[in-house]
Amino acid sequence: LFDQGLSPEKVKSSLKIKPFIWKKLSPQVDKFSRKKLEVCFQRLWEADVALKTQSIPKKIILEQLVIDLCE
Questions:
Q1: How far is CA 15 from CA 2, 24, 62, in A?
Q2: Residue 8: CA atoms inside 13 Å, Cβ hemisphere, count?
Q3: How many CA atoms lie within 13 A of 65 on its CB side?
Q4: pLDDT value of residue 9
Q5: What is the 3-state secondary structure (H, E, C) of 5-35?
Q6: I want to staple 10 with a disulfide (CB 3.0 to 4.6 A). Which of 6, 28, 29, 52 is the partner?
Q7: Cβ distance 61 to 53 under 8 Å?
Q8: Whose CA is closest to 29, among 2, 52, 47, 6?
Q9: Can you tell me the distance from the alpha carbon of 29 to that of 10, in angstroms, rounded to the nearest whole number?
Q10: Which residues neighbour 44 within 8 Å (Cβ) at sequence distance 6 or greater?
Q11: Local confidence band at 2 (pLDDT 50, 70, 90 cut-offs)
């Protein structure tokens, strides 16, 4: 939404984010590139699918997710 030129206030209202959450979230906006966020969301989606469909222990899937997100 920032890429579309929306002001921080418009982003907050568009996403329906509560003020106390926005206060914590907004300083972090510039710390992640769009590409990094896309990779993180992809990994979250993959972990979600794995948790629902694979016989691998859930703890292993979640541990791997945390490792991947921290890289």
A1: 12, 15, 27
A2: 10
A3: 18
A4: 78
A5: CCCHHHHHHHHCCCHHHHHHHHHHHHHCCHH
A6: 6
A7: no
A8: 2
A9: 14
A10: 65
A11: low
Cα-based distances in Å from 53 to 3, 23, 66, 68:
35, 37, 19, 20
pLDDT in tens, 12-45: 788 888 888 888 887 887 788 888 888 999 999 9
**Residue 61 near residue 50 (C-beta atoms within 8 A):** yes
pTM metric for this prediction: 0.67
Q: Are 43 and 68 in contact (CB under 8 A)?
A: yes
State which amino acid sits at residue 65. Answer: L
Number of residues in the chain: 71
